[in-house]
């Protein structure tokens, strides 16, 4: 039996421009005030290691799971912060999810060619599991 050699070739990808996935700066710099009430512009997502990500509501609801969590019965009185905690998703993966949700919102109905969404090979499996859970 011959030994098989496998070569992994990573296709270079153009960097994603930051403004389309950031709300201000989406990691730890958004204000909780922007997440208060049922009609807030932003949602706070918390990773399992307690890093917060404040992203636009319109981006967050690209995930069917997050959308369902936000619209559940008794959720988020007018004075409460719209916060979703993920006990199983670490900050590196949640950051990529936030980027993808914004990417999806930006290109969902685009007439132009859609660029590839870059994913680091080291996080592919964890990201796939998170995407499956979040239905995004």
Automatic annotation (TrEMBL):
Localization: Nucleus
GO cellular component, one term: nucleus
Entry keyword Translocase: no
Domain SKP1 component POZ: 42-105
Keyword check for rRNA processing: no
CDD domains the UniProt entry points to: BTB_POZ_EloC (cd18321)
Xref: InterPro entries: ELC1, SKP1-like, SKP1/BTB/POZ_sf, Skp1_comp_POZ
Keywords, sorted A to Z: Nucleus
UniProt superkingdom: Eukaryota
Coiled coil residues, start to end: none
Main localization category: nucleus
GO annotation terms (biological process): ubiquitin-dependent protein catabolic process
Similarity-based family: Belongs to the SKP1 family.
Protein name according to UniProt: Elongin-C
Phylogenetic placement of the source organism: Eukaryota, Metazoa, Ecdysozoa, Arthropoda, Myriapoda
């Amino acid at each position: 039996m011959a030994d098989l050699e496998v070569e992994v070739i990573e296709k270079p990808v153009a960097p994603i421009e930051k403004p389309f996935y950031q709300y201000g700066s989406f990691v730890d710099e958004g204000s909780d005030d922007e997440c208060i009430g049922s009609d807030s512009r932003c949602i706070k997502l918390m990773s399992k290691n307690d890093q917060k990500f404040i992203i636009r509501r319109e981006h967050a609801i690209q995930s069917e799971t997050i959308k369902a969590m936000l619209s559940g019965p008794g959720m988020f009185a007018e004075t409460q912060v719209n916060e979703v905690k993920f006990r199983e998703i670490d900050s590196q993966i949640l950051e990529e999810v936030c980027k993808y949700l914004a990417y999806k919102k930006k290109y969902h109905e685009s007439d132009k060619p859609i660029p590839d969404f870059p994913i680091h090979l080291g996080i592919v499996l964890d990201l796939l599991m998170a995407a499956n859970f979040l239905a995004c």
